[in-house]
């Protein structure tokens, strides 16, 4: 969840928020998937050839899993390259670079860089016929609930999987922090791959050994 922003902040400073996301969209568009992304995608392909499946449940919003080759990805915090219209609610995939002409080159991380103060009419707008509503990034902001349809799919996977790998996450953001423990509570093996010990997972496994 991108806790830095909320809908209230977007309502007050839409230009500033879009600057933030425009810069990060550009960074992500030029970022290659990591070795971990590729390994997960290769594992999915190998299992698929064996008639089995691998589902990636991610808090990331950068599409790097998909670019690495993963086909079955559930994004619980949304997607940086999707937009949602505040007027009609339409959700669209959007990889435009820049996302609109007024945001080209904007979003410098320099704390002394002035706000662009782009007029709302020049920010990303809805392409649906007769709408032209203001678009926002289709990501989960502070105070917002997760997509219930995505969560339903996640719950199904947690209830039926026979192995859970927790990879590269601090496991401190809920509800995702409890995905591993939830699976382990069924007696299913859970393995964590991280550069540091995860407090939440360690506590669970000490008190509820698999």
UniProtKB/TrEMBL annotation:
The active site is at 77 (proton acceptor). PROSITE patterns: SIRTUIN. It catalyses: N(6)-glutaryl-L-lysyl-[protein] + NAD(+) + H2O = 2''-O-glutaryl-ADP-D-ribose + nicotinamide + L-lysyl-[protein]. Keywords: Cytoplasm, Metal-binding, Mitochondrion, NAD, Nucleus, Transferase, Transit peptide, Zinc. SUPFAM superfamilies: DHS-like NAD/FAD-binding domain (SSF52467). Zn(2+) binds at residues 85, 88, 126, 131. Residues 1-210 form the Deacetylase sirtuin-type domain. It is found in: Cytoplasm, Cytosol; Mitochondrion; Nucleus. One of its GO terms (cellular component) is cytosol. It comes from the Eukaryota. GO terms for molecular function: histone deacetylase activity, NAD-dependent; metal ion binding; NAD+ binding. This is Sirtuin 5. It comes from Sinocyclocheilus grahami (Dianchi golden-line fish). The lineage of its organism: Eukaryota, Metazoa, Chordata, Craniata, Vertebrata.
